[in-house]
Amino acid sequence: MELNEGIPLTSHIPMLYDENIYKIYIILKENKYNKMEIKAFSKVCNINYIEASKKLKNKKNLIGEGNAYYIRDILKQLSQYDIDYEIIPPYCY
């Protein structure tokens, strides 16, 4: 495919215009964390397992917050773990 001079090229990338700040939470499957949840939390937050286990005290635990690209990067990391999570507001990418 050849590009012709004088013809403007545009692309619409919705994530570029998304100004939402998203929050992503790990939702514990039981009342206490399991091994996968500790691993995922530790990896995403860049902390050791002991620190992660101290922070996973609630059924719903904040991992981080940021723009659509930040959440996309976290989701890539979480995809290797069998865990439950929630994103607020709903993430459509």
Task: Describe this entry's structure for a reader.
The protein has a domain at 31-88. It has a three-stranded antiparallel sheet. It is 35% helix and 19% strand. It has 93 residues and is of the alpha+beta class. The longest helix has 11 residues, at 35-45.
Task: Offer a few descriptive terms.
93 residues, alpha+beta, 4 helices, elongated, 3-stranded antiparallel beta sheet, 19% strand
Strand content: 15-25%
Alpha-beta content class: alpha+beta
Mean pLDDT: 91
Q: H/E element string?
A: HEHHEHE
Helix content: 25-40%
Shape: elongated
Cα separation of the termini:
28 Å
Largest sheet: 3 strands, antiparallel
Radius of gyration (CA) equals 18 Å
State the total count of DSSP E strands: 3
Strand order of the largest sheet: 2-1-3
Low-confidence region ranges: none
Total of DSSP H or I helical runs spanning 4+ residues: 4
